[in-house]
């Protein structure tokens, strides 16, 4: 038996209105509209599917949470997520890594792919946390903790999980580094499934083809969208995504790859949407960049920015 907690579908609403709407579900310790699993008449625990209460009515994704507009809130902190939730953003982007104890940590590693001077795949969450706290005093959050906040405190703000590429150290074989990335995707899906909260998450994946090829079938099986951040022609997405509904059907590209007058790239929005591939960009931070992509918002899945509050205001709020 499956209890669906919200009948609102995620059909895109008017793109230029900020916030999630006003309809509330009943209060509960888990979040608006949540009801805990109960034993049905045959003694089996029914499955609970926790859906976002409302559909976001904007396409703004806060990069690593809403950070720079809130007094130096640290990247990937629960505080930064709460800022994005308060803004009613469509999504809050976060960076994930797989840990030695088969967990998923939310953090942005340094240029050596280390968190608190440790490689996450060689250390447990507890060990990584002992290496230091965030600048606001928070401990490094796990993905489960992040998802719990999204579900219990938010109504519409999804989590957009960036499966970070692992480029070092050179002493670790490339295939093993790729597998650590794939492990992060796999374990995050398992955690979301255990919470019944798959509809709260989406993935974006590094341009590393080996990582994407490993993550694509996982997301396809779980019916969770995954965007590929590869500077590849739309025809490549189309070819690799033949027969797929959730993998290779979304291109999420850096502005540096775009032929939009701001950089020397050659990719265009129309190249992808004309082939039925959803498209989004990161990070639109300047006034000119924001204005340009707002003018093309009807063709975009989302716009990621380090300044989501400003971007939402520019969209008419």
Would you write up a description of this structure?
- By secondary structure, this protein is α/β, with parallel strands linked by helices.
- The protein has a single domain, classed as TIM Barrel (Alpha-Beta Barrel).
- It is built from nine helices and eleven strands.
- Helix 4 packs parallel to helix 5.
- It is globular, with a radius of gyration of 19 Å.
- Mean pLDDT is 87; it is low at 1-19 and 21-39.
Q: According to CATH, what is the topology? A: TIM Barrel
Instruction: Tell me which CATH architecture applies here.
Output: Alpha-Beta Barrel
Low-confidence stretches: 1-19, 21-39
CATH superfamily: Phosphatidylinositol (PI) phosphodiesterase
Question: How much helix, percentage-wise, in residues?
Answer: 25-40%
**What is the rounded distance between the termini?**
42 Å
SS element count, helices:
9
What series of H and E elements makes up the topology? EEEHEEHHEHEHEHEHEHEH
Instruction: Tell me the number of strands.
Output: 11
Reported for the largest beta sheet, the result is: 8 strands, parallel, barrel
Strand content: 15-25%
| General form | globular
